[in-house]
Amino acid sequence: MTDRHPLDLTSPATRAALSRGLTTRRAVMAGAFGIGASLSLAACGSEGTGGGTTGGGAAPTAKAAQDLSDTEKVVNWSNWTQYIDVSEDEKSRPSLDAFTKETGIEVNYTEDYNDNDEFYAKVRPLLAAGEDTGRDVWCSTDWMVARLIQQGYVQELDYGNIPNGQANLVESLKDVEFDPGRKFSLPWQSGFAGIAYNLDATGGKKIESMTQLLTDPALKGKVTLLTEMRDTLGLVLLELGKDPANFTDADFEAAMDMLRKAKDSGQLKGFTGNDYTDGLTKGDIAACVAWTGDIVQLQFENEAVQYALPEAGFTLWSDNFVIPALAKHKKNAETLINYYYQPAVMAEVEAWVNYIPPVQGTREELEKIDAELAGNELIVPSDEVLQGAHVFRGLTAEEEQKYSSEFADLTAS
Fold first, then answer.
1. Residue where a domain stops, chosen among 265, 286, 314
2. Residue 250 class from Cβ within 10 Å (0-12 exposed, 13-18 middle, 19+ buried)?
3. 126 and 224 assigned to the same domain
């Protein structure tokens, strides 16, 4: 079990993070990960409606458009908010500026990816109609990548344009359930789901297990859980000694019963996305299920905010680059991905976003920027920490509908 210690607030990266503001992001997944360890890990996320399986069979061929990359030096990238490095005056994104200077390719960078299902709802009508989405690349969570591949909505990557991706992707991410061989996707960032708490609100007590979170009378009415089923349910399954990678309907019901009892007893304040951050910082929320990148950032503001990875186990999610069907600048998008698969470039991003990098060699480069961040187990986890991470298995269409419906009933106020 790992409990976070406050970061050095005098460090260069911390001062830079403070200057950017503390807006955070997250809504996620079901996949695999590891840094320096051959584990398959997974994460949690906003639940989709419809095909959530990762079954076999060849993926439909995504439609390709004439690639205008050689004549139009531009790439259109949609991403989540606060998910890239920003200058101290917040007027530029240094790594993107450096990419343009190096390649001559301008990047239209748009932070319009707020939730997997919400974004899918925007682009699906265009993809289904065989039309260009106006985007050349975006970053989707693992389970959404699985859906896009199954529906033939994303194109196969040309690794001739992404040699760094082939060379520098961490070994355990090279072959994942939802995209064997990484034909269609490459990870952008990853992170853990665990327990966060405010020492001022808990009376100095550490909150380190889901049982404690869901039953401790001292926390009654001041606990929040995530609306993302794979995060919340995955942690409860692990607390019950069940493997999220291999659980039954009976295991699911046992986990749901534990959650229902907590709700019925008044233990819960409610269910949230990453809007738990403000309440946790102020102490209105004493403890909650939370995402690591959020908490690393919140600790810049309040050292009382702490984080625990439950000894019973925890989940890990990934967001991934994909190139949609009919993208007009596919080669430029692949050039962009290749650029970020340089360890020094990824380290610059990590100093700002504080998530887990998928690029080998990032830790050594991050040490040159801020040794404290490079030693943070929530950003660059050790093999020992990674042993506690678990996969949430792929769901059949029937399971997706059943489980999502029951969980939605639970989270409804």
1. 314
2. exposed
3. no
Q: Tens of pLDDT along 351-368?
A: 999 889 999 999 999 999
Over range 204-219, report the average pLDDT: 98
**Rounded to an integer, what distance in angstroms lies between the CA atom of residue 245 and that of residue 398?**
17
Q: In the predicted model, what is the mean pLDDT of residues 141-156? A: 91
Write out pLDDT tens, residues 245-279. Answer: 889 999 999 999 999 999 999 999 999 987 899 99
Q: What is the mean pLDDT of residues 117-130?
A: 93
Beta partners for residue 74, in sequence order: 106
Considering the domain architecture, whether residues 350 and 331 belong to the same structural domain is answered as yes
From 264, 293, 314, the end of a domain falls on 314
Has residue 26 got a pLDDT over 60? no
| pLDDT-derived band at 22, boundaries 50, 70, 90 | very low
Q: What is the pTM of this model?
A: 0.77
With 0-12 / 13-18 / 19 or more C-beta atoms within 10 angstroms meaning exposed / middle / buried, residue 1 is middle
Find the mean pLDDT for residues 133-147: 93
Maximum distance among all Cα pairs of the chain, rounded to whole angstroms: 65
What is the reported pLDDT for 202? 98
Helix (H) or strand (E) holding 288: strand 287-291
Residue 336's H or E segment, with its range, is helix 330-340
Q: Are 47 and 185 in contact (CB under 8 A)?
A: no
Domain contains 15: no
Exposure b/e, 179-199, CB count within 10 A at least 16 = b: beebebbbbbbbbbbbbbbbb
Six token digits for residue 93:
């994104």
CA distances from 326 to 107, 149, 193, 229, 330 (A): 18, 14, 34, 32, 9
What residue ranges in 95-240 does DSSP mark as E strands?
106-110, 137-141, 186-198, 223-226
CA-to-CA distance for 199 and 206, rounded, in angstroms?
Answer: 7
Looking at residue 253, which CATH number applies to its domain?
A: 3.40.190.10
Which domain does 205 fall in, by range?
194-314
